[in-house]
Amino acid sequence: MKxxxxxxxxxxxxxxxxxxxxxxxxxxxxxxxxxHLAVISGAAVEQxxxxxxxxxxxxxxxxxxxxxxxxxxxxxxxxxxxxxYETIYEDLFSKEEGTKIVDALELAFEPPFNLxxxxxxxxxxxxxxxxxxxxxxxxxxxxxxxxxxxxxxSIRMRIKAxxxxxxxxxxxxxxxxxxxxITRKGYNKAFAIGKMLEYLKIDASEALFFGDAxxxxxxxxxxxxxxxxxxxxxxxxxxxxxxxxxxxxxxEEATRxxxxx
Length: 261
Ligand SMILES: [Mg+2]
Prior knowledge:
Rossmann fold; Hypothetical Protein, Haloacid Dehalogenase-like Hydrolase, Chain: A, domain 2; binds magnesium ion
């Protein structure tokens, strides 16, 4: 039996930037009685809170077993209750680093890329503290628009190629559907998984990771490539939900068996 279940967020627990469904919220709360849970995402903690934590019907002590790794693992926060988090670690950019990255991103608004600097869907560039994110259509773009903007990543691969030489001391990563995430070197889901095992003082064999992009070039692939944690590639949040129902039944059965001696 695993001691921790770790997840990607968008496309795995929820649709991109959307809240988890009530069914997902219920099964996650059920699992918290048996295991630790962790979510690793390029999102900011506020976004993760809105999408997940605020939707959970369970509150109180059980939530302290829920770990959030925002910004590709540049920080770890543990829920205390819906109103607050304890920061276990956080690696923020200096003012100079943040400015340097935001300045470099100016090239996305110039030829040949010509992204709209402002649009109907919110900020294009956001400094999240330990990560700067460029969202091609804006932070709040609807999923229908996002899914058709750069499905083969070709726009973002060209922007990344232009950014890499300007920001050699940082990692420029292609994120979810429309984003480019820039962090200090080494932050990715594998890094966060390492921090998670260290925080829980458990072995990689006691963890399980779920992601919709566990394939070469996908933003969940580092877990498979760089750790020995077992990875499950899911097709969508419904697929994850079905698998979690099955896992929860296993835990509940084991608990019942144990109580019957
Ligand atoms: Mg995903």
